[in-house]
Amino acid sequence: MDNTSGNKMMEMLGWLHCPPWSMLVMAALLMGLAPFWPEPHLVEKAHMLLNGESLRPIDWFDIVWHSWPLIWIALRLATPSAAGYCPVPTPKTPERRS
Length: 98
Description:
Elements: H1 3-13, H2 21-33, H3 41-50, H4 57-78
Helix pairs in contact: 2-4
């Protein structure tokens, strides 16, 4: 793999580094533990898998839906730190005039 293809890969993975860590952790906690009562969906689905129950398509959707922030964090940790730039432009704040 030459250097240009490596740079292209960095550009493609840069979006993983756009949201701040605090937002990803909050999303992982909220989505991973929802609903809080009576039992989080991820825990419920883990029990179903461990008990050998077959999961319906909606159950697989639930697993993906409630674990996407955890997957994002894992992908962000797996990408090189050189990909740590965000390709999405941030709005510039207007200069204050006094």
